[in-house]
Amino acid sequence: MSRQAFGSLRLLPSGRYQVRYRHNGERHNAPVTFTTKNAAREFLKRTEREIAAGTWRSAAEDAAEREAVAAARAAADAEAARRGTPFGTFAERWIGHRYNAAGKPLAATTRAEYERLLRGPLAPLADLPVSSIDLATVQDWRAAQLSGGKVTQTARAYALLRSILSDAVHRGLLAEAPRPIRGAAGATTGKRVAPPTADELATILDTLPERLRAFALVAAYGGLRSGELRELRRGDVELTGGDVVLHVRRGVTHAGGRAVVGGPKTAAGVRDVLLPEVAARPLRAYMAEHVPINADALLWPAADGVSHLRQSTIARHWQRAREAAGRPDLPLHALRHYTASHYSAAGATSREVADRLGQASEGIALRYTHSTGREADLVAAMDAAARRA
């Protein structure tokens, strides 16, 4: 131990020097040790001068101040990073961590659709900081999109944009979400899907390849979605006596170049569908001739007989058939409208129509129902009922 006029020095076993000193009755150690005695003495002299000048701070105070400064700087940097996060970067992260109402990751097709909207209609917003997106920005973006005639796509993109910005508010990246634009998320082209007439459906069936006729009949009288039909397997078809019941439990979509099998579009899509004879009889005949006696065999596979039939393949044949029927406006989806309309005309309630289509909402199911040309018969029945009353 070497005592100095102020403080003391101690040679440690390591060969380094430790500095000790007292101030206000408390003993302090220098925050570091020194390689030479001169360096240790210089530290003591400097410390003595700081105490005399009133600028001295203890090592603990210095460390606390450094930590506080570092924390403040880190918080400021993080805040700046958050405020400056580009919309595209945040949106990609949002999709990657998004879960559905059941707590499961997004379906592959939903993810693919969101990514398509980000690359397409939402691309002009990609480089903007999330914090800068306000109502005027959204209005200008929407007007530019609608000017190109993409009404439905713009509505879908706007709905996605609102969801992403809502989460940005929750995460503190945006002060408040832009005020909703009334009707923007539900905009449509105004084109009403009209199902085929009985004669048009007959022409379509005659024009389709033989292997797709039963497919179209089941779609028209069973109300199944295309993905549900393309995933149907022999084991999903119950043949009891003269009845044919389809056990709808799955659907298929294509994303990223591969088939993705999952549950139906909605929980209500899990259902059993009893087919009328007009569709049941042709389906029985088709299965007897074309579907292997194997519970896992697809009813309508691709040309290789094993993989799933693609929607694009059906669309190619459907386009030729609908043109032959004089209905170039007719989407394949119109066959679900055909089911709903005729099921309703046969006396089904709106709930029963929704159940057959696999829709949770009766309101949505009602959109599928259309006039079947029975107005005169219905009015006559009303007259008869009035006379009996």
UniProtKB/TrEMBL annotation:
Per UniProt, the keywords (alphabetical) are: DNA recombination, DNA-binding
User: Domain named Tyr recombinase: which ranges?
Assistant: 191-383
Family according to the record: Belongs to the 'phage' integrase family.
Species annotation: Microbacterium yannicii
One of its Pfam families is Phage_integrase
Kindly give the PROSITE patterns that the UniProt entry links to this protein: CB, TYR_RECOMBINASE
Q: Where is the Core-binding (CB) domain?
A: 85-169
Which InterPro entries would you find in this protein's record?
Answer: CB, DNA_brk_join_enz, Integrase-like_cat_sf, Integrase_catalytic, Integrase_recombinase_N, Phage_L5_Integrase_N, Tyrosine_recombinase_XerCD
Q: Does the keyword Cytoplasm apply?
A: no
Q: Which domain of life is it from?
A: Bacteria
Name of this protein:
Site-specific integrase
Per the record's keyword annotation, is DNA-binding included, yes or no? yes
